[in-house]
Amino acid sequence: MIALVDCNNFYASCERVFRPELEGIPVVVLSNNDGCIIARSNEAKALGIPMGAPAYKWADTLAKYDVQVFSSNYALYGDMSQRVMNILSGFAPDLEIYSIDESFLDLSGFSGSLTDYGQQMRRRVKKWTGIPISVGIAETKTLAKLANRIAKRFPELNNVYIIDSEAKRIKALKWAKVGDIWGIGRQHAQKLEYYGVKTAWDFTQKSDAFVRKYFTVTGLRTK
Predict the structure, then answer these.
(1) Which of 124, 40, 20, 33 is nearest to 72 (CA)?
(2) Residue 221 has pLDDT above 60, yes or no
(3) DSSP-based three-state secondary structure for 2
(4) Closest among 222, 141, 148, 144 to 189, alpha carbons compared
(5) Which residues contact 3 (CB under 8 A, 6 or more apart)?
(6) pLDDT of 217 above 50
(7) Could you tell me if 179 and 189 are in contact, meaning their C-beta atoms sit under 8 angstroms apart?
(8) Long-range CB contacts for residues 58-66, cutoff 8 Å, separation at least 24
(9) Alpha-carbon torsion, ordered 67, 73, 78, 81, to 10 deg
(10) Residue 170 near residue 146 (C-beta atoms within 8 A)
(11) What gap in Å lies between CA 85 and CA 42, rounded to an integer?
(12) pLDDT tens, 109-154?
């Protein structure tokens, strides 16, 4: 099994570590020149503030709801990322850092409760760094990414979700939009929707010949 661990709203969460009074208050982080919004707390997302939006276009909303605005601090984010990854390396011998706020852990051979193990990761990272994380676990990286998305979407899961049965795999694939699949992208998603492929499950039901014709070998590997 493979775990995908993702730091929640990473840049905004980093800023909150040193400003704990901002917990529950909308926070956004701006790009290098303070031009665009590149990170949002859940509270900011709830206000409808989109990722990548020019800050000046949302100035009224930011002021109206007292949104806390931060300039990006990549030295801080890099340091916090290293701390998180160091902690996660203690949970699996094989850690693959995918991005500044994501990593894959190879859990091959683990025999305990994967849900409990995921919760241990979540609690330890939060306690030692202040950064909240979500954990998705499945047999492949693509499914682990999907499990992570589900873990974030449904609060009752407490940020950990395991796809460990065929029934769960099918349910997850039928829930996910085709554009949610890791590696598909917006342009390919639009093409797939044109051919009637709306969900990840629809994509898996297409023939290898169809996928190879329109999406090359990379698409076939994703399938």
Answers:
(1) 33
(2) no
(3) strand
(4) 222
(5) 91, 92, 104, 105, 107, 118, 121, 135, 136, 137, 144
(6) no
(7) yes
(8) 62/28, 65/26, 66/25, 66/26
(9) -10
(10) no
(11) 23
(12) 888 999 999 999 999 999 999 999 999 999 999 999 999 999 999 9
Give the global pTM.
Answer: 0.85
Q: Encoding tokens for residue 93?
A: 């011998």
pLDDT tens digit sequence for 73-85: 999 999 999 999 9
- Other beta carbons within 10 Å of 12: 23
Q: What is the CATH number assigned to the segment(s) 2-8+75-172?
A: 3.30.70.270
How many H helices and E strands in the chain?
A: 10, 8
Catalytic positions, written as ranges: 102
Residue 209 corresponds to which tokens in the numbers above? 């010949």
In this structure, which topology does domain 10-73 adopt according to CATH?
Answer: MutS, DNA mismatch repair protein, domain I (3.40.1170)
CA–CA separation, 4 vs 208, rounded Å? 27
